[in-house]
Write a structure and sequence with these properties.
Two copies of one chain form a homodimer. Chain A contains twelve helices and no strands. With 229 residues, chain A is mainly α. Chain A has two domains: 1-57, Homeodomain-like (Arc Repressor Mutant, subunit A), CATH 1.10.10.60; 70-228, Tetracycline Repressor, domain 2. The first copy, chain A, binds a DNA duplex (30 and 30 nucleotides) through residues 6, 9-12, 14, 17, 38-40, 48-52, 54-55, 59-60.
Chain lengths: 229, 229
DNA sequence: AGATAATTGAACCCGCGGGTTAAAAATGTA
DNA sequence: TACATTTTTAACCCGCGGGTTCAATTATCT
């Protein structure tokens, strides 16, 4: 209402400046971590100055937390684009895993921020109470698939939605997070297009296997070698 | 020979001092990363002084690299305790995964150092040419299992040893590395004894499923619910 | 216009922490 | 004993970088 009219007329646009700072800060913190990032390096990448960073974000740690929250919101928001309504439970699960795998791949900065949070024992993430709702929704998606799968007689009754989510996260996350050390140690071949397709396919097969009541359907649902399908 | 006679007589014992420094430095670097660690904090934990750290290790980065190499050697060394000779390939694979899962669990400092290396795009690990041999041996173990599995007609012919190693690493690594954020977001229940047993069991099942030629053996080899076995 | 509040710039402060200097002990050799 | 080498201590240096001061500018309201 009033504030919006204001900002339209203003040349100085605080929201835009803040967004600019957040954008650059996200890249820097993702690259170098909390202690490794220099505020001056952030300032250098923005259209504004070091002074303004402190003006809008108090101190380094608050800026870091703002970045984390901002990035988390954006990425978790992007997840809601996925629509699994009406799919067969096994197909839905497959779609969810493939989507998550690709989505993590497309958001390496988010992955790096989570890695950094883990180094900090999730200290800053614990403050972000707004996350609770988003997390419950993420589990809710898996939960609904599980329930539908059980009701359709396709899935085992004893699977834990949280454990299933853990499995999906593990492969999708590791694939991005540990690329540097893994390819240093064991070569880059898993990270070209063919390698990624292989890993994704294998992950789908593995996870479906741990969920299906009748594993003999596995080869029909997801052949290990798609060229034979 | 001579140096050993020396060190026996000496009160001052350089090797012991260096080892002491490395021990404390490993803990600190694992806790706080390269830029986050203060040399004085390391010194405070040793029986010696800050000056001696620079005396023996030149500068902070060299110390960090020495810690990384030391830790890597120790952990990869611990892996050689596993003896899979004479086991059936499917049993051997299962044993390898269970061992790796537990071994990573017992070495959180190593995991954290690898996380930190990934943040640094593996810059320091790339200098450690001594690792190549150890890495090849790790892949060699998986390779032999694959080969034996194929020859026994148990495994698919198209599986890549490196990809299989990736799968084993992914679950074992993620399980330790992302404990903080995962349990912050989704609760701690996967990380008590029962939860860990569940994850390990599920991982075994998933990975075997992606390798076995005849998936119908899966339930016999690794029931999803062991209480039914 | 003039009062008031929001935004910005330039220069500054200061303590933390990586790294050094210099010289004293400890050990070894002849 | 004299002398060289290695190990250790205590005190110091100094620049980097997080955070501040203060005044100038810009915009808003009446």
């Amino acid at each position: 209402m009033e504030t919006r009219e204001k900002s339209r007329k203003w040349k100085q646009n605080p929201e835009a400046v803040k967004a600019d700072i957040l954008r650059v800060a996200r890249a820097e913190f993702a690259r170098s971590g909390l202690s490794g990032t220099r505020i001056e390096d952030i300032a250098a990448g923005t259209k504004t100055s070091k002074r303004m960073i402190f003006y809008y974000f108090q101190d380094k740690q608050s800026l870091y937390e703002a970045v984390l929250e901002d990035c988390y919101a954006e990425v978790r928001g992007g997840e809601s684009e996925l629509d699994l309504e009406g799919l067969r439970p096994d197909v839905a699960l497959r779609a969810l895993l493939e989507f998550t795998f690709d989505h993590h791949s497309r958001n390496p900065e988010f992955i790096r921020l989570v890695m950094i949070e883990n180094i900090h024992e999730a200290r800053h993430m614990q403050k972000m109470h707004a996350l609770a709702a988003k997390n419950e929704r993420a589990i809710g998606v898996v939960e609904r698939i599980c329930k539908a799968g059980c009701e359709a007689g396709l899935f085992r009754e004893d699977i834990s939605p949280v454990a299933l989510h853990w499995q999906i996260s593990a492969v999708s996350f590791f694939n991005v997070a540990n690329r540097a050390t893994f390819s240093t140690n064991f070569g880059p071949e898993l990270f070209d297009e063919a390698g990624q397709a292989l890993l994704r396919r294998t992950a789908v097969r593995g996870i479906l296997a741990s969920v299906l009541k009748d594993v003999s359907q596995l080869d029909a649902l997801c052949p290990a070698d798609p060229s034979l399908a």
